[in-house]
Amino acid sequence: FDWFGYRVTPAPVVYVCLEGAAGFRLRVAAWERHHGRPVPEGLRVVLQAFKLTERQDVQDMARAVLTVGDGAVTFIDTLNAAAPGIDENASRDMGIVLEASRELQAMTGGLVASIHHAGKDLTKGLRGHSSLHAALDAVIEVTRDIDRREWKASKVKDGADGEAHPFRLEVVHLAPDDEGEPVSSCVVRPDATPQNATRSKLPKGGNQKVVLDALGDLLRKSHAYGRAGAPSQRPCVEVEGAVEAIA
Asked: Where are the beta strands (DSSP E) in the chain?
């Protein structure tokens, strides 16, 4: 199998979804509609509470992962939600989380990947104590600059790092909800658009900023896509509505 130009080997996946469970269900539905088939049998999603700080939870999770298959990848989303109450900046607390992650990895014989956020200063990398970054075998950093998204391996033990891979979120329209309101989610697609073509200059004048804010609000609320030759994933607004909102 090929993924962003890399050869990958399929493996069972257990996704521990501790934040945004409703959104994850929509992501699954979007993936199935986009690819025209059900998600692979090897995917399992855990929606119940899980704490890395509770040894019994770690052992129970390991047993659940082993039922899916050998060499499974366990995603913990997010690390903070799986360790409520800890001080991320304290060496002792972060050590407890790291030891629990190592124990889970050892018991399952696979890979444990934790989703974590960067701090306010993005140049400093992962939020929390420096022992977290030092203990990891690999770090995949996901960033966004206006409409451009990319991921890169910012740390790889015994391997190459630093190469950026642009991607985009393609909107997938799903069946309306019970009240007839439109429902959508998105899927990840590689983005081959040249970087300089995706960047645009932000307005500096006062009137220009007013116009941009008004249009931005309309586009975020728009349920119309792909009008008048626009890309199918792009929201659109009518000229008359735009003029009225700006005025």
From this structure: 2-3, 6-7, 13-17, 43-46, 73-77, 111-115, 138-145, 148-156, 164-174, 183-190
DSSP conformation class of 203: P
Q: Is the Cβ–Cβ distance between 166 and 150 less than 8 Å?
A: yes
Q: How many residues does the chain have?
A: 247
Treating both helix axes as pointing N-terminal to C-terminal, what angle do 206-221 and 239-246 enclose, rounded to 10 degrees? Answer: 130
User: Helix, strand, or coil here: 160?
Assistant: coil
- Whole-number pLDDT of residue 200: 56
Question: Does residue 110 sit in helix, strand or coil?
Answer: coil
How far is C-alpha 118 from the geometric centre of its chain's CA atoms? 13
What whole-number distance in Å separates Cα of residue 182 and Cα of residue 175?
Answer: 7
What six digits make up the tokens of 81? 């939600």
Residue 104 in contact with residue 82, Cβ under 8 Å? no
Structure tokens at 17: 């979804």
| Order of all β-strands in the sheet with 111-115 | 43-46, 13-17, 73-77, 111-115
Average pLDDT over residues 44-64: 95
Q: What is the pTM of this model?
A: 0.73
pLDDT tens digits for range 173-230: 998 888 888 899 999 999 877 655 445 566 677 888 888 888 888 888 888 877 776 7
User: What are the C-alpha distances in Å from 58 to residues 13, 49, 69, 80, 97?
Assistant: 17, 11, 17, 15, 11
Contact 186, 34 (CB under 8 A): no
Contact between 173 and 11 (Cβ < 8 Å): no
Distance CA 45, CA 62 (A): 14
